[in-house]
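Example record

One chain of 241 residues, shown exactly as stored in the release files.
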Amino acid sequence: MNKARIVAIIPAYNESGNIERVVRDVLSLPGGVMPLVVSDGSTDDTVGVAARAGAHVLDLPFNLGIGGAVQAGYRYADERGFDIAVQVDGDGQHDVACLPALIRAVEEGRADMVIGSRFLSVENNFHSTFARRAGISFFRVLIRLLTGFATTDPTSGFRACGSSLIKVYARYYPGDFPEPEAIVVASRMGARLMEAPVVMRARMAGKSSIGKLKSPYYMIKVTVAILLHMLKDRKVYGPWA
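Predicted structure tokens for this chain:
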């Protein structure tokens, strides 16, 4: 059996204070995972720090937002024939030591996408804001009602996807605040979804782009997008390999 080719898509916007650690952590994983940093129009030295740390780098000429950056990574993975793509945030909050368990579930054919859930881990000591927890609870209920998938952490960007979903997300990936919407797209395509426990850490440097004032906008926008997806013909996402 040929060894699976695995790429870690690491979207980053002005993460020069965090990105070296993330890249080095990915490079330390057993089995060989290629770190791909997608600099989303960064104005600091994110590109230089990532490259010096040993990452492959896509330097987007202007800021597309998290969805555009992640889709650029999936297009790269699809064009170069990677078997598995994992998503890791560039802010250092995802403990990449948890990745092998996500990857293994995809390699063994147990799932097309594995979502890392902080709520399934007994080791997790990281606590998000009240607004973020409220959004998580809301999308848990909405996604279960619409798709039947009982996710515990719908806003987690810590994920592993197989080749079929790589192709889907290379063609279409949600824009702003994409994580819950991406779950619905995968479900509409008939993908097998599961969760695995992961550990979240506090951000080491910089600050999140999602503040308290954006939370109501986030919930309304993503809810409308999800409901629209339920009305679409799945053919709009392309063929399911």
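Notes: The mean pLDDT is 90.
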